[in-house]
Amino acid sequence: MLTDAFGRTIRYLRVSVTDRCNLFCSYCRLPGEAILPNNQEILNFGEIVRLIRLFLELGVERIRLTGGEPLLRRNIVGLVQALAQLPGLQELTLTTNALLLERYAAALKTAGLQRVNISLDTLNPETFDRITQHNSLSKENLLHRAGLPAVLAGIAAALQVGLQPVKVNMVVMRGINDHEIPAMLSFARQQGVLLRFIETMPVGEAGLDMADLFVPADQILDQIHRHFGSQLLPVEQPGSGPARYFNLEGTTANVGVISARSRHFCNTCNRMRLTSKGKLVYCLGRQDRMDLKQPMRDGASDAELKQHIQQAVALKPERHAFEQAENPHIGAHMSALGG
Ligand code: SAM
User: Fold this and answer.
1) Does residue 2 lie within any of the structural domains?
2) What are phi and psi of 48, to 5 degrees?
């Protein structure tokens, strides 16, 4: 079992399979920031599968594939298929911007993917293009230029093939999309997806630029309460992780908030992150990490790699450092950390 110095047991691993993305969301990447790691630098499929097998042997139960945009990784379906067969894996999920999901949903489901979380911050095509800087995409990305309609088609495809429950994550930004909170909730109810509002996090230079746009979760909940005229009653949601869930009284609609800043949940954190370059990240809000790729490429045995993983877990900090005056996480990039 992987238990850290504060008694938290690690059961969940987020695995970034690529740093590349087909969007430039303003809170995640700086405009024009090119992320084209040399193929040698990123873990190959054999290395990813081996590391995940070791994590599972050490007690991790849930794996989430992320990125960058995970659907841009070549043969992502093959990777899902290989991972789905690993003993001990209880849940295999993926986080995506859904631009390519319509194309892959059925194959991913057949390969053994259980659920998807989809990032969608707006229902307005112009706001979508503005947030995702969709129009500044380079030539090779023009294929993916369908924007908001492609995301909506991706959501429909996920529902249709049964990658359920589909969760939709909205990063709320003051003056940009906060007026869309009620509309997004109505959309989620209509579609049958579970909406979660995410507070902006100061990760990476793009994230730090977002300081003025921060909307605390309590204000988000208050806006829903005022708009719909109903109370929001706390509810338990199985496997809820860092989200807190509420039911809109008198309806079947539930809604989640992820308030990493206004009400941190570090004391129940059960997760670690593996970057596409093989670095194990202990905490989203810190810079510390342990390299697993080099020892693996230098011929480390399974037992030695497990020791590295155990050492990393022992170094997991008690809590994130988002509020500290000097920002130790400024050099990190959300697109490399996998969100
Ligand atoms: N490309 C995939 C996607 O869009 O879902 C997966 C990677 S993305 C980095 C994962 C999540 O991180 C997304 O839901 C995104 O909205 C969130 N994210 C990125 N930067 C963030 C920030 N500064 N604050 C809060 N959430 C952020």
Assistant:
1) no
2) -65, -45
